[in-house]
């Protein structure tokens, strides 16, 4: 019996020792501390050095780096400078891969913020704030969310913001504010959404005056609306809004001379509203079918910029308050590989264009009409061998009795294709009539590399 009690007591002692060892190994502060100095500090918070209780992590003065590792969970704010009323001026960097039930703030919580800060969230945080929660924010900050946050604010939450900030969402956030939520926003900001925005995107502000010349690019999903300036306040910024993703709500460009561009299969569930002043609505589609692009161009040419509805590729677009639909961008996709020394395009009106690749640019090498190709194929079938159609210093085009077309580079590289499959039907053989194909003035044809 005594032996039995001995083992029970020994087990209890070992459990207590193990608990004390674990408690001592998990320090109550980040390394070297939760609060930095007036100099340039590096603060690391990991599972061995966790933030201590309710003590906020603060870099204080200088250009600080604060890293919160995966596995850390804390109910604190993390600030590059301070979470009090002091002005924050450091150019600080905050990287969070843990769970912070508080805000990640570039400069100060209650005071003004002027530092050019960088905040990256790979885990969870309540909000990413470039400069300050309650003060005036003027730093040009970079905010990147790869995880989950409630909101992203370029400068401030409750006061004005004027910094030229960059906000990129690759994860999930409720809302994005280029400058601030409740104050005036005047910074020239860039907002990019590649992930999921649960509610709305504001290039400047929610309730204040928005006057920044902002750029908004949506490649992901916005469940609500996109505002070029402000929802409740006035706006005068000259904004560029590009949508290649999904916006379930509407686009409100606001005041100023704005440009809205719809790319590819980008959709807008509501209305695309240009707002006041001179606004341009662009549709940028890519296709290797010239007839499809021409049909789209003609459809838009007949529309009224002031307001209308079109269905393009099964997607309904409704717009109002635009002054111009004339800058329609249509890009024909090259039909050969991007690594080839030349680029081949089907052309409007029939035929092909060949561009020699010089560095990152395409230089026009040959333009051959559909009629010339048809005549050459007829000749090749007549004589039973290939026929050279045309050549330049950078390319040569041949046709074969089979109807195949081959483009050769001086290096010996060649690319062959069936015109009917890639570009459409050819006219019957006949006399070659050289005539200039007139395109409507609203069509701009890009030739990408």
Task: Write up this protein.
The protein is mainly beta and 449 residues long. Among the domains are: 28-208, no CATH class; 342-437, no CATH class. Helices cover 12% and strands 35% of the residues. It is built from 4 helices and 37 strands. The strands form 4 sheets. It has a 17-stranded mixed beta sheet that branches. A 13-stranded parallel beta sheet has the order 1-3-6-8-10-12-14-17-20-23-26-29-37, with helices on one face. The chain has a 4-stranded antiparallel beta sheet with strand order 33-34-35-36. Strand 30 and strand 31 form a beta hairpin. It is elongated. Residues 1-8, 14-25 and 433-449 have low confidence and may be disordered.
Supply the helix-strand structural class: mainly beta
Low-confidence stretches: 1-8, 14-25, 433-449
Q: How many strands, what sense, and barrel or not for the largest sheet?
A: 17 strands, mixed
Terminal Cα span:
88 Å
Work out the helix count. Answer: 4
The proportion of residues in beta strands is 25-35%
Rg over C-alpha atoms, rounded to the nearest angstrom: 31 Å
Helix content: 10-25%
Instruction: Return the average pLDDT rounded to an integer.
Output: 89
Principal-axis shape equals: elongated
Number of strands: 37
């Amino acid at each position: 019996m005594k032996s039995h009690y001995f083992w029970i007591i020994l087990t209890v002692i070992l459990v207590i020792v193990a608990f004390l060892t674990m408690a001592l190994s998990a320090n109550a502060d980040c390394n070297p501390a939760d609060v930095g100095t007036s100099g340039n500090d590096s603060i690391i918070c990991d599972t061995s050095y966790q933030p201590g209780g309710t003590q906020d992590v603060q870099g204080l003065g200088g250009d600080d780096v604060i890293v919160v590792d995966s596995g850390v969970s804390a109910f604190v704010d993390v600030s590059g400078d301070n979470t009090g009323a002091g002005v924050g001026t450091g150019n600080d960097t905050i990287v969070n891969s843990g769970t912070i039930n508080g805000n990640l703030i570039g400069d100060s919580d209650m005071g003004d913020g002027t530092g050019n800060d960088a905040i990256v969230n790979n885990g969870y945080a309540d909000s990413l704030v470039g400069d300050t929660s309650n003060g005036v924010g003027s730093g040009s900050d970079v905010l990147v969310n790869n995880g989950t946050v409630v909101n992203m604010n370029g400068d401030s939450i409750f006061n004005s913001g004027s910094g030229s900030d960059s906000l990129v969402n690759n994860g999930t956030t409720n809302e994005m504010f280029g400058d601030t939520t409740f104050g005036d926003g005047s910074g020239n900001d860039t907002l990019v959404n590649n992930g999921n925005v649960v509610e709305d995107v504001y290039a400047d502000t929610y309730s204040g005056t928005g006057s920044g010349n902002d750029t908004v690019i949506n490649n992901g999903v916005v469940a609500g609306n996109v505002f070029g300036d402000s929802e409740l306040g006035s706006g005068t910024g000259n904004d560029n809004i590009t949508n290649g993703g999904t916006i379930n709500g509407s686009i409100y460009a606001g005041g100023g001379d704005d440009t809205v561009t719809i790319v590819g299969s980008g959709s807008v569930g509501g209305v695309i509203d240009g707002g006041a002043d001179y606004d341009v609505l662009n549709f940028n589609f890519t296709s290797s079918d010239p007839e499809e692009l021409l049909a789209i161009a003609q459809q838009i040419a007949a529309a009224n910029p002031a307001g209308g509805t079109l269905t393009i590729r099964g997607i309904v677009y409704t717009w109002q308050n635009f002054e111009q639909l004339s800058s329609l961008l249509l890009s024909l996709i090259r039909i050969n590989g991007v690594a080839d020394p030349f680029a081949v395009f089907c052309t409007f009106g029939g035929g092909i264009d060949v561009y020699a690749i010089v560095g990152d640019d395409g230089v026009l090498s040959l333009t051959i009409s559909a009629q010339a190709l048809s005549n050459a194929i007829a000749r090749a079938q007549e004589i039973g061998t290939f026929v050279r159609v045309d050549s330049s210093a950078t390319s040569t085009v041949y046709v074969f009795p089979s109807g195949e077309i081959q483009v050769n580079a001086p290096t010996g590289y060649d690319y062959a294709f069936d015109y009917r499959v890639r570009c459409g039907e050819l006219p019957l053989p006949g006399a070659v009539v050289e005539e200039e194909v007139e395109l409507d003035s609203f069509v701009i044809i890009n030739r990408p590399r």
